[in-house]
Amino acid sequence: MEETFHNHDYLIIDRLTYRFGEPQRGDVIVFNSPASKGNTLIKRVIGLPGDTVTVSDTGVMIANADNPKGFVLSESYITPENLGGASGQTVTLAPDHYFVMGDNRAASYDSRSWGTLPGSNIVGRVMLRLYPFSDMRLLPGEARY
């Protein structure tokens, strides 16, 4: 699978929504990397505060207070051959921490590598790809359970 965003894409970022609410599962966000100061990254929110996230070869399992037995995240934008990496990894998220992953899972440097993302690192939510014009569209994909 090809990555969702490319170098030199022009994106419209919503910097206001998270001042009044929390990121939701499936949101694509821009944030300051907790692993390398000065780098800004784009990833999808997979796990929310309080969730227990398990990454396996077959997908992502989320357990939380509403779903103590867990559920497999339904991600139509991810193909089976692109799941990649960190099989069997399990993490429980602290308050105001998120688990984020890239859509190009096999090649993504994300929470599987550097851990959870503090909410204070989040810059905003990607709303629209503006350029290149041939790829102009509202945020692609969504995560469901």
TrEMBL record:
<dbReference type="InterPro" id="IPR036286">
    <property type="entry name" value="LexA/Signal_pep-like_sf"/>
</dbReference>
<dbReference type="GO" id="GO:0006465">
    <property type="term" value="P:signal peptide processing"/>
</dbReference>
<keyword id="KW-0645">Protease</keyword>
<feature type="domain" description="Peptidase S26">
    <location>
        <begin position="1"/>
        <end position="130"/>
    </location>
</feature>
<dbReference type="Pfam" id="PF10502">
    <property type="entry name" value="Peptidase_S26"/>
</dbReference>
<keyword id="KW-0378">Hydrolase</keyword>
<dbReference type="GO" id="GO:0009003">
    <property type="term" value="F:signal peptidase activity"/>
</dbReference>
<dbReference type="InterPro" id="IPR000223">
    <property type="entry name" value="Pept_S26A_signal_pept_1"/>
</dbReference>
<dbReference type="GO" id="GO:0016020">
    <property type="term" value="C:membrane"/>
</dbReference>
<comment type="similarity">
    <text>Belongs to the peptidase S26 family.</text>
</comment>
<dbReference type="InterPro" id="IPR019758">
    <property type="entry name" value="Pept_S26A_signal_pept_1_CS"/>
</dbReference>
<dbReference type="InterPro" id="IPR019757">
    <property type="entry name" value="Pept_S26A_signal_pept_1_Lys-AS"/>
</dbReference>
<protein>
    <recommendedName>
        <fullName>Signal peptidase I</fullName>
        <ecNumber>3.4.21.89</ecNumber>
    </recommendedName>
</protein>
<dbReference type="InterPro" id="IPR019533">
    <property type="entry name" value="Peptidase_S26"/>
</dbReference>
<dbReference type="GO" id="GO:0004252">
    <property type="term" value="F:serine-type endopeptidase activity"/>
</dbReference>
